[in-house]
Structure prediction request, 215 residues.
Amino acid sequence: MIILFDLDGTLIDSTEAILESFHHSFDVHTNTHPKDEAIKALIGYPLDVMFAQLGVDEEQVWDYVKTYKEHYRKISTKKTFLLESAKESVEEAYKFATLGIVTTKTGEYSKILMEHFGLMQYFDVLIGREHVQNPKPDAEPILNALKLLNITGKEIWMIGDTKLDLIAAQNAGVNSIGVLSGYDNKKTLKSYTKIIHTNTFEAVKYLKNKKITHN
Prediction:
């Protein structure tokens, strides 16, 4: 079995770091701050898309992204936390599956975070924003992860907290599980997957039982 995890809202909570970095970017570029709820509603999308949706002019978007990243890099490990049971989820999943991370976060920062939490050792692949042309909900990030893993004949699952994760799974032709630990609600997730769990640990337990039953 192959299990691919999203990061924000699935394994980690970096809301504080994300919000602070957005506000910092709007400060630096002397623009009116968006409301926190407006920012949170877009988490999961690429940064350039988020800034554009928050009203930044197209020609300035990448300047805002650059400022955001410079600040985020400084604070990410201090203001990002593992979600409840996330560490146990990864350790348990590692016992019976090959693991990967598929995120729209910058892969470089994602790797630093996972090393900070002592979890990177469990993952065979990490696909971040800079590794693809077309981020989630496109199939490309998942397909790239599977290509790098180069494992055939295995059941493949994507675990994520937003519709972007689940649509990407549909587009890639793999199974998906929605978790309620992040940014999209149950009603939204139910539109894109039949399987929803409270958190990643419950999702991993479900997959472990499924594997035992099928063996």
